[in-house]
Write a structure and sequence with these properties.
By secondary structure, the protein is mainly alpha-helical. The chain has helices spanning 6-33, 41-62, 67-76, 78-107, 112-123, 125-149, 155-171, 180-186, 193-210, 213-237.
């Protein structure tokens, strides 16, 4: 028996590449040609909103035979799904807190992805709550969990590969490709793949244990809501 279903795996990987590279690069190019400034809040919201809208439509088309059935089963077994989501999120949160603290003590700087998110939350709090707490978790779970699960026959293969790709997707922003020296200088920040991959591992567990993408989406939503609340609270207290 083949351990990897390459057709399903390649489909999942293509979706990740499309979301992380192809779609934003294409839309960014269109904005440059049309002289649309992304520094403008309205333009920023419209452009990013269009990316999320395109991805959701794409998921509904590709997974139309299963996504609504999973949603139905989620509401039918919501107590069990939420219990699994909560337990795995708490484990993930503990792992992230410990690993982030260790890496921060070594590097002296938080992950660039986290720094960027804090800035976005400060600049566009309402849009950030909608995208980071509701839309973003669903899209990322569809990409890194549902899009990859059918590619692997063994549980641990799925959990490990899914979590590593999830972690990599969150540290790509750390890479500076402007020069060789700049690239080498930013390599230590890739250590933050550890906490992000840890989170990805427990999210994947949530999905695998219930075979329902909305369980891992719930865990992901809990985490993002927790983080956004902390950032907004600190900004309010800080003035």
């Amino acid at each position: 028996m083949k351990e990897i279903n390459w057709k399903e795996l390649n489909k999942g990987l293509l979706l990740i590449v499309f979301y992380l590279l192809v779609l934003p690069t294409t839309i960014s190019g269109i904005c440059q040609i049309a002289s649309i400034s992304l520094q403008n809040k309205t333009n920023y919201i419209l452009v990013n909103g269009s990316i999320y809208f395109i991805m959701i439509l794409l998921f509904l088309w590709i997974y139309k035979n299963t996504i609504f059935e999973e949603l139905k089963n989620y509401f039918k077994n919501w107590k069990h799904c939420i219990k699994i989501a909560l337990l795995n999120w708490l484990k993930a949160l503990l792992f992230m807190m410990i690993s982030n603290s260790i890496i921060l003590s070594i590097l002296g700087n938080i992950a660039k992805n986290e720094a960027a998110n804090r800035m976005i939350i400060g600049n566009n709090p309402i849009f950030s709550i909608i995208t980071m707490v509701i839309i973003g978790p669903f899209i990322e779970e569809m990409l890194f969990r549902k899009g990859l699960k059918n590619g692997f026959k063994k549980k641990q293969q799925f959990l490990i590969i899914s979590s590593l790709l999830f972690g990599l997707g969150h540290v790509l922003i750390s890479l500076d490709l402007s020069s060789i020296d700049a690239f080498i200088a930013c390599l230590p920040t890739l250590l933050y793949i550890i906490p992000y991959s840890g989170m990805g591992y427990f999210l994947a567990k949530s999905y695998y244990e219930t075979d329902n993408i909305f369980t891992s989406t719930t865990a992901h939503t809990l985490h993002n809501a927790f983080v956004v609340t902390l950032v907004l609270t600190s900004q309010i207290i800080g003035g």
